[in-house]
Amino acid sequence: xxxxxxxxxxxxxxxxxxxxxxxxxxxxxxxxxxxxxxxxxxxxxxxxxxxxxxxxxxxxxxxxxxxxxxxxxxxxxxxxxxxxxxxxxxxxxxxxxxxxxxxxxxxxxxxxxxxxxxxxxxxxxxxxxxxxxxxxxxxxxxxxxxxxxxxxxxxxxxxxxxxxxxxxxxxxxxxxxxxxxxxxxxxxxxxxxxxxxxxxxxxxxxxxxxxxxxxx
Length: 216
Known about the structure:
Layout (H helix, E strand, L loop, with lengths): L7 H5 L2 E4 L13 E5 L4 H15 L5 H9 L9 H11 L2 E7 L6 E6 L3 E7 L8 H18 L8 H21 L10 H7 L1 H7 L1 H6 L9
Parallel strand pairs: 3-5
Antiparallel strand pairs: 1-2, 2-3, 4-5
């Protein structure tokens, strides 16, 4: 797998119309445009460390049962499968400026150039252990979108790929207790730390917005 080492000069001038993961599946209506940024040793090290963490991800058994119960179909059985898919597919992982600053990562699929996973350049200097784990979750998610080798999306595919985020995040929480504690930047509060709450704490979070009162 290449991590933007040899061909940065040719890629740097390119702008991708990246795959935007909209639940309604209509990516073409509002594509995310991404301009690739030059990669330095910090980003290369972060991505390499993120991939090493991803290789170790195993789903907690009860979490997987729950995901299947709500209809999520995990594209990979563990992190190692995704890591091997990345190597076999020749996908690139690059940092980029996005036209939509709220996007954490995107997938660009080109029938000629292959698959590129793009990470928001706002995170290019984020290299703490928690940041590395968060980046690995984003990569895992995009691997799920890329596995079918097309640029189409659907509600089911988005659910499946979000399940990868959540399963990896809960594995990391078990492996590294408190690793995400006090991390409240956008990547966490509106990303990797939010998704598990939406999946597992939905009733607690949204069904009763006023604690101490009845929702019936």
